[in-house]
Amino acid sequence: MAAHLIRRGFLASVSAILLSACLTPARPVAEEPAPDAGPAPLTRLFLVRHAEKETGPDPVLTSAGEARAAALAERLAAEGVTEIWSTQTRRTLSTAHPLATELGLSVQSYDPAALPAFADQLADTPGVKLVIGHSNTTDALVALIGADPGPPIDDAAEFDRLYVIKITEGLQISSTIERYGSSSADGLQPRP
């Protein structure tokens, strides 16, 4: 009888252990941390000067300028642009037009005489924004945002500079200067 009780006690212990194992919630498996790619940008800004223009007090774009505006639209079409900003000149509005039409966005205006306030607005609100300005305002706006403007824009010949600025949640700012469309120095020769 003692053997029977021992066996019965053993079976009861095993049953209790198995039942306990079934009722105990599984421990979550620790996930491997994702590789640190840095914080995702909350704001991405693309800043350009207007495309090539005719002469006069409020000139229109030249044929080279119209081609550049189309190249800008092609370059930025898949970037997720949510806002397009321009001064109220024909040359900046015409530079904005192809992308605005393609994305179905309206072009919002800003005052180039109030750049510090506009820089704060751009940096403080999330989104992907294109800003079209002038040779004497675009690099100034880049600097006010806190990015590196590089050398001054050549007013007579440089129309292909594209500033790309990323601002993360911690207000970390990174920027690059790219080129788009044909090289300003080469006229309408396409880039490789």
Describe the protein's architecture and organization:
Helices cover 35% and strands 20% of the residues. A six-stranded mixed beta sheet has the order 3-2-4-1-5-6, with helices on both faces. The longest helix has 22 residues, at 2-23. It is globular. The chain has one domain (45-186): Phosphoglycerate mutase-like (Rossmann fold). The chain has helices at residues 2-23, 63-76, 90-103, 115-124, 138-145; strands at residues 41-49, 83-86, 107-109, 127-133, 161-168, 173-179. It has 192 residues and is α/β, with parallel strands linked by helices. It is built from five helices and six strands.
Layout: helices, strands, pairs:
Blueprint: H1 2-23, E1 41-49, H2 63-76, E2 83-86, H3 90-103, E3 107-109, H4 115-124, E4 127-133, H5 138-145, E5 161-168, E6 173-179
Parallel strand pairs: 1-4, 2-3, 2-4
Antiparallel strand pairs: 1-5, 5-6
Helix pairs in contact: 2-3, 4-5
